[in-house]
Specification:
Layout lengths: L17 H17 L4 H7 L5 H10 L17 H14 L1 H21 L2 H12 L5 E4 L15 E4 L5 E11 L6 E8 L2 E8 L5 E2 L14 E11 L12 H35 L1 E2 L2 E2 L4 H29 L5 H26 L10 H13 L4 H13 L6
Parallel strand pairs: 1-4
Antiparallel strand pairs: 2-3, 3-7, 4-5, 6-7, 8-9
Length: about 400
């Protein structure tokens, strides 16, 4: 019997294939080299310098649209994509968000609902990181209720589409070369592939954030943006389109949140073994060990849950309700792990010399984006009772 591994107490790595471990090692090494040495400064300054270079590097290791097939995408398994999300968010939620929005929202929408021309035009460049994408669904007055969006696309007599409206809290918005924008039409909600150099399109960056500071967040403004008839994503009408994209992205969050939690847990363990009070390391006190034990239990239960959902996705059996189950549990537990880690670090827990407070504040955004706690509770409540409590 193998000795107990504090880093893998449940032996979850035994469930991984050599290819899974190779993907994890590649992404972990990239994040350790290109993000971890600098991310505290990025967070403190509230910017993500060199984002286009980072995107190209992420494309170079196959991390953009990695679970998609063809068009230059890696065709990785859902579990491999999840492992990548975990390692990226262990560095910073903003980096995982960059990859998630690019691959699971913008690229996924084009890959699943776009025409061959749209796929061939955009996906290879997006997979390589040459073009950054964003995803415009949330509006200033309509977040959890996207069906009430006000952004509108109207056909003119010549066949062109004309878009007007605003989107809010859009990751990658001001650095994107293409935006997937969802809008009301006479036929229902439709998706549009919008080159960001289109006249009437602008994406002012949102400042004064105290969360996801090492991430680009923008507003999208569409003022009589004229698009050709073939700019529409022709294979879907209604909320099924954006919600299916969100389900794919939420799956990545299930893994990613555990990366942030792991980073805080590891910082707490190391600190507890070296920080001395009352003549001994604080890790030798019962109360500290109880905290660490509870953190380890929730961390590795969350990783096991993520792995289970990944295998279901690879088998084509993952339901949206199960994704809600994972996001609700794992983000909530990740926040609690971060807060407990902060108590172990004491005053040092608020310092950017340690990752704890940065992860904790980032997770406050992860908690509510792509479905608030309340929305996922209601998804599960409806699934459990058969009764719709959304309205």
């Amino acid at each position: 019997m193998n000795p107990f591994d504090p880093a893998d107490p449940l032996g979850i790595d035994d469930l991984l294939e050599p290819e899974d471990l190779a993907v994890r090692a590649t992404v972990r090494a990239w994040a350790g080299d290109r993000v971890l040495p600098y991310v505290a400064q990025w967070y403190e300054s509230g910017e993500l310098p060199g984002i286009r270079e980072l995107a190209r590097e992420l494309g170079g290791i196959g991390a953009l649209g990695m679970s998609l097939s063809g068009y230059g995408c890696a065709g990785a398994s859902a579990v491999q994509y999840g492992l990548a999300c975990l390692e990226l968010e262990a560095a910073d939620s903003g980096i995982r968000s960059l990859v998630s929005v690019q691959g699971s929202l913008a690229m996924y929408a084009v890959h699943r609902f776009g025409s061959q021309e749209q796929k061939q035009n955009w996906l290879p460049r997006m997979a390589a990181g040459e073009v950054i994408g964003c995803f415009g669904l949330t509006e200033p007055d309509h977040g959890s209720d996207p069906a009430s969006m006000r952004t509108y696309a109207k056909r003119d007599p010549g066949g062109d589409w004309v878009l007007n409206g605003r989107k809010m809290w859009i990751t990658n918005g001001s650095v994107a070369g293409v935006a997937v924008v969802w809008a009301q039409t006479e036929d229902g909600i439709r998706g549009f592939v919008v080159p960001t150099d289109s006249p009437g399109f602008s994406a002012p960056e949102i400042k004064h954030k105290w969360s996801l500071r090492a991430s680009v967040t923008s507003e999208l403004v569409l003022d009589d943006v004229r698009l050709p008839a073939d700019a529409v994503l022709g294979e879907v009408t209604g909320l099924k389109g954006p919600l299916s994209c969100l389900s794919h992205a939420r799956y990545g969050i299930v893994w990613g949140a555990m990366g942030a939690a792991r980073s805080c847990f590891e910082a707490a363990v190391e600190y507890a073994k070296t920080r001395e009070q009352f003549g001994r390391p604080i890790g030798g006190f019962q109360l500290t060990q109880a905290k660490l034990a509870d953190m380890a239990v929730e961390l590795h239960k969350g990783i096991l849950l993520a792995h289970h959902l990944g295998r279901r996705m690879d088998a084509g059996r993952l339901r949206p309700e199960q994704v809600s189950f994972g996001k609700l549990n794992n983000v909530r537990e990740a926040i609690e792990i971060c807060r407990t880690a902060r108590t172990i670090l004491g005053a040092n827990g608020i310092s950017l010399e340690y990752p704890v407070m940065r992860h904790a504040t980032n997770l406050e955004s992860v908690l509510t984006y792509e479905g608030t706690v309340e929305m996922h509770q209601l998804v599960l409540g409806k699934a459990l009772t058969g009764l719709d409590a959304f309205r």
